[in-house]
Amino acid sequence: MSTKTWFITGTSRGFGREWALAALERGDNVAATARDTTSLDGLAGEFGDQVLPMALDVTDRDAVFTAVARAQEHFGGLDVVVNNAGYGQFGTVEELSEEEARNQIETNLFGALWVTQAALPFLREQGSGHIIQVSSVGGVSAFPTVGIYHASKWALEGLSQSLAQEVEGFGIKVTLIEPGGFATDWGGSSARHATAMPAYDGVREQAANRPSRRGTPGDPKATGKAILTLVDAAEPPLRVFFGEAPLGIVTADYESRLATWNEWQPLSVAAHGG
Fold first, then answer.
1. With pLDDT > 90 as the criterion, what percentage of the chain qualifies?
2. Residues near 204 by Cβ (< 8 Å), separated by ≥ 6?
3. CB 156 within 8 Å of CB 164
4. Is residue 8 a contact partner of residue 16, using CB atoms and an 8 Å limit?
5. Lowest mean pLDDT among 102-111, 139-148, 182-191, 214-223
């Protein structure tokens, strides 16, 4: 397997960190970005010239284009582009402030869009590449108290499905990774919380105790081998779950949707008119 060059956002911790390590440990090159590059000192110290650490706020479109171009020039190409930067915004729909809602979309959706747009000219020119969009089981299903997070990931799903069809002819692959619960910091210090309204205390309690939140979280380190298998595949999937729980969650959700659509199909046909 030839050496690959990766551009990964959000490599300070979590999946981004594990995937950068997995790539570097097998000899690949990684342009690693984070808001604070001091979090990348360990990678640079261990892997030297294999790593290009860069400070990057993915909501800054100009900075994103500059960073991607720098990585491409530094390593002489790009093979895998991973849009991992993002966070979880907690709060019911009514509780969200305008700033909280806009910031969530700016990071989780527009950040991925800017990186994708910045990388595409290079990938098109070389006639190859693999764009990895980090979505979530919450990109295809939804739960209470994280509605704006779901909005960002559902949007990323639709954007990426269109993208995959648009760039297939250029030899570029697109994959949406949809993780379930993992022992990362997604729900910890990296998360943000809207000001709680007492009226929704019961909703929060139910959300905290829902069956999908039970069980042992996945091990982020195990995803390192999985991501390598994915990017090495000749025909990678458009969508893939990471973790044991997502398939059951989404199967139940889609079965419910299909049942409802079928139940109301007479109304749908009537609405079509003559």
1. 89
2. 92, 145, 196
3. no
4. yes
5. 182-191
- In this prediction, residue 187 has a pLDDT band, given cuts at 50, 70 and 90, of low
Mean pLDDT across the chain? 95
274 pLDDT more than 90 = no
DSSP tag of 184: S
**Cross-strand pairs, 89:** 192
Query: What was the pLDDT predicted at 214?
Result: 55
- CA dist 83 and 11 (Å) reads 10
149 in active site: yes
Residue 254 appears among annotated catalytic residues? no
Does residue 155 surpass a pLDDT of 80?
yes
Q: Report the alpha-carbon distance of residue 164 to residue 187 in Å, rounded.
A: 30
Catalytic: which of 149, 152, 160, 200? Answer: 149
Catalytic residue among 12, 135, 136, 141: 135
For the chain, give every domain's residue range: 5-272
Apex 98 CA angle, 87 and 212, nearest 5: 40
Q: Which of 4, 153, 173, 200 is catalytic?
A: 153
Determine the distance from the C-alpha atom of residue 71 to the mean position of all C-alpha atoms in its chain, rounded to a whole number.
20
The closest of 107, 111, 108, 114 to 65, measured between CA atoms, is 114
| pLDDT attached to residue 211 | 66
pLDDT tens digits along 31-50: 999 999 999 999 999 999 99
Round to whole Å and give the CA distance between 32 and 38.
12
d(CA 160, CA 179): 16
The fold of 5-272 is Rossmann fold (3.40.50)
To the query of whether residue 162 is one of the catalytic residues in this protein, the response is no
Strand segments, DSSP code E, in the chain are: 5-8, 29-34, 51-55, 80-83, 89-90, 129-134, 172-179, 192-193, 239-242
